[in-house]
């Protein structure tokens, strides 16, 4: 147990230093220590010839000319000589002044060389002058430094090769280990673990997966009644909703070995590696049975076989085939449970989802208001909070946020608080962080002219006024003309709670709010600008959904002309033909245009009726640059609870007029 902890700590420390799980840096073979030695040895190798010259010549005898040598012999100043081939080494009796001006003291040795063509008189000259003669066989000038100089490059190459081999072997990427299992094993001896107490919400998902935990702890109860636990459980949900967190909680709750691996870890550049790793993974899991295997991002290897514009991927398909065989092949797998997570279940191969393989699908949706509040409480445990922080209010104001988004929200709030030198996080910090996450960063460096600022103020005031007046819109939260991200101004609405069904009246009011900005420009300036580009894009998309998918058109009725949504990268969207006639396409375009025109006219009529409040709102927005919901409603002269009460009567009258107009149009169409 302690050994596992030490290994984990070692991997953690290595990871902080930029290395891999084995402590290797990946920048030089053998790690940073060998790299430092290399930086020392390499300059020495460059200086080695100079050092060799210094050491071999620094203490050598002085050379004298052969002529000088004969003269000193004739003068009787040479005591003895040692002859080795052409080399003559001697000793002077008295000091000698050489031709180069160098003084050789008496008793010191010298070196000279007999000419290559020889000197027949030299021996008689030495004998006549009583010079003691020693002879030695000729030898090669082989020194230790010379040998070292020749061997060092070879030794350096051997050292680098050994370092590379050791590095590859330690990383498990040797040529013979490339197909080994790369899954991380979490055993019950782990000290730090995630449990279901760390997973907020997701009660249905936790109930489903708790059966697996209970089966692993108490399999006898299931065996006695003849129940079999699912072999494969697929966790499906949008990104950030907690699929991997649920898998980690299972690993923490179950007293069984837990193998965790990502789908991309199976794929390598070598053919057959993915299938080999699948085999080794299941073999290791069976050795520790009962056990759990978790495969994250299953869609990376479980994609529909044979699909795609360029055909299938052989390596990925071989990996998938091996996975299918291990799940429910010729040799049944009874002791290993496979968990997998994906946010794209529509592209998975049907063979994966059949009974006997991934036969249970656990849906992990975006959290509700209650779930978001619980998630916020979990992430707020380790963060000091002011007393004014109301997490229930924060949960209500974050519709559509996933668990990861909520964690990021509190982290951004903590960063803002730290930047302001605060000791605790306040509600204002959380609000500013929410605006930053939803609306984007403020662009204070953008300078608008007075005319542009006025246009943007009226544009956003139009959105805000229509949102406040119409009865079926989401409550107004904030309106600002401070540039954020790509927008020059933003009007923000937040729903009071989670919505799962949207009425036609709500969508019509939403279209009116979207087009109110352009309608306000047209009404107040008799001109239009490019500021409504995103409004048109989103409103057209919504109107097309109303007509083509939701059957809200009076002419088309309950006709779904949008067809089934398919993925372009699977090649199915391009090959699918249109499922309606040309006449129906014209009717669809006409109805979409009719929805947009009615919403535009309605927004413009609402603005014209409340022109005085519109001007007050725009002028105050120019001055303050940002207004909250209470300030907007106060300027418009309506209470927060009674928002749009007077407008409801006008709405009923206008709705009646529209119905009469629609009946008249239908009658004229019938006559045609």
Structure keywords:
672 residues; alpha/beta; Rossmann fold; disordered N terminus
Would you write up a description of this structure?
- It is a single chain.
- The protein is α/β, with parallel strands linked by helices.
- It has five domains: 2-54 and 145-170, no CATH class; 61-135, Signal recognition particle alu RNA binding heterodimer, srp9/1; 184-363, Rossmann fold (3-Layer(aba) Sandwich), CATH 3.40.50; 369-439, Helicase, Ruva Protein, domain 3; 450-671, Peptidase M41 (Methane Monooxygenase Hydroxylase, Chain G, domain 1), CATH 1.20.58.760.
- Helices cover 50% and strands 10% of the residues.
- The protein contains 23 helices and 15 strands.
- It has helices at 2-16, 32-57, 66-74, 122-128, 144-170, 203-217, 219-224, 243-253, 273-287, 314-328, 350-353, 369-379, 391-396, 403-419, 427-439, 450-469, 504-525, 533-548, 572-575, 582-609, 611-624, 629-636, 645-671, and strands spanning 78-84, 87-92, 96-97, 103-104, 109-113, 132-135, 184-186, 232-236, 258-262, 291-296, 336-342, 360-363, 476-480, 490-493, 626-628.
- The strands form four sheets. A six-stranded mixed β-sheet has the order 7-9-10-11-8-12.
- A hairpin with a 2-residue loop joins β1 and β2.
- α9 runs parallel beside α10.
- The longest helix has 28 residues, at 582-609.
- The two termini are 85 Å apart.
- Residues 1-30, 566-575 and 644-672 have low confidence and may be disordered.
